[in-house]
Design goal:
This protein has 235 residues and is α/β, with parallel strands linked by helices. It has a single domain, classed as Rossmann fold. Helix content is 37%, strand content 28%. The chain has a six-stranded mixed sheet, with helices on both faces. A four-stranded antiparallel sheet has the order 2-1-4-5, covered by helices on one side. Helix 3 runs parallel beside helix 6. The chain is globular. The N and C termini lie far apart (35 Å). It binds adenosine-5'-triphosphate (ATP).
Length: 235
C-alpha cells in the first residue's frame, strides 16, 4: 500500500508551471528516487508533497487520506519531513542543539534513545556534539540535517540533493546511510542530480523532464535503460 501518492499534481510559481501533471507514489517502506536535470521540477514536487507549496491542481494522498492543501506544520506532525537542499542547519547552535530542535514537534519525552540512534548512525556528530554546527564540514552538515530530520521520527523522509557538493567518498557514505535509514523502516523519497548514486540505492525511480514524469521503473531497469544512460549516467 502506498504511504504517499500524487495524482495529476500541478504546481506553479506565478506564470511558471514548474510541475505539470505529475503522478507518483511511494509505498510503505520503499526507497524511491526522483532524478532529472536542473530545473525539471524535482524540488518543487517535494515541496508540494510536504505542504510547503500549494498544489494548483491534482491530489495528494498520505496514509490513505487526502492531504492536499494541508499546511506543512500539520504534515510534519503526521510524519512527512523534508531535508532541504542546502541543509538549513543553525550555524551558531551546537550540533546537539540542532538535533534537539528536530524533536520540537514531538509530544513524547523519549528523545534520548533517538539521539543515541542518530549518534550511532553518525559517530562524527557524537564527537562534535558541543561544537557550533557552522564549524562542521559540508558533509558533516549534511549528516546533521539528516540527523535532525530523524529526531522528529519521520514516517516519510523527503531528501533533496543530499549528495550535493560532497566529495566522492562522502557521497558513498551518504548513500550507505540512506540505505540504512531505509532498512530501519523509514519510507524515503530522494531527489538527486547524481542519478548513478540515486539509482544504485533505490528500489524504484522516476525521471522528470520539464515538469513531467517521463519514465517510471525499477531502479535496476532505469540503470540499464539506454535513454537514461545517455541523458543522466554519462553514457
Ligand atoms: P534543481 O536541481 O535545480 O533544484 P529541480 O528539478 O529541483 O532543479 P525546481 O527547483 O523544482 O527544479 O524548478 C522547476 C522550475 O521552477 C524551474 O524552471 C525553476 O526555474 C522554477 N522555479 C523554482 N523555484 C522558483 C521560485 N521560487 N520562483 C520562480 N520560479 C521558480
Amino acid at each position: 500500500m502506498n504511504l504517499i501518492e500524487a495524482r495529476a499534481l500541478e504546481v506553479s510559481y506565478g506564470e511558471i508551471r514548474a510541475v505539470r501533471g505529475v503522478d507518483l507514489a511511494v509505498g510503505r517502506g520503499e526507497l524511491v528516487c526522483l532524478i532529472g536535470a536542473n530545473g525539471a521540477g524535482k524540488t518543487t514536487t517535494l515541496k508540494a508533497l510536504c505542504g510547503m507549496l500549494p498544489a494548483r491542481a491534482g491530489v495528494i494522498n498520505y496514509d490513505g487520506a487526502p492531504v492536499t492543501g494541508r499546511p506543512a506544520h500539520e504534515l510534519v506532525r503526521r510524519g512527512i519531513v523534508l531535508v532541504p537542499e542546502g541543509r538549513g542547519i543553525f550555524a551558531r547552535l551546537t550540533v546537539l542543539e540542532n538535533l534537539q530542535l528536530g524533536a520540537y514537534a514531538r509530544r513524547d519525552a523519549a528523545v534520548a534513545p533517538d539521539l543515541e540512534r542518530v549518534y550511532d548512525l553518525f559517530p562524527r556528530l557524537a564527537e562534535r556534539r558541543r561544537q557550533p554546527a557552522g564549524t562542521l564540514s559540508g558533509g558533516e552538515q549534511q549528516m546533521l540535517a539528516i540527523g535532525r530530520a530523524l529526531m522528529s521520527r519521520p514516517r516519510l523522509l523527503l531528501l533533496d540533493e543530499p549528495s550535493m557538493g560532497l566529495a566522492p567518498l562522502l557521497v558513498q557514505k551518504i548513500g550507505d546511510v540512506i540505505r540504512r535509514i531505509s532498512r530501519e523502516g523509514v519510507t524515503l523519497l530522494l531527489v538527486e542530480q547524481n542519478a548513478r548514486l540515486a539509482l544504485a540505492i533505490s528500489d524504484r525511480g522516476y525521471v522528470m523532464e520539464s515538469g513531467r514524469v517521463t519514465l517510471a521503473d525499477s531502479a535496476q531497469a532505469l540503470l540499464s535503460n539506454p535513454q537514461v544512460q545517455a541523458a543522466y549516467l554519462g553514457g
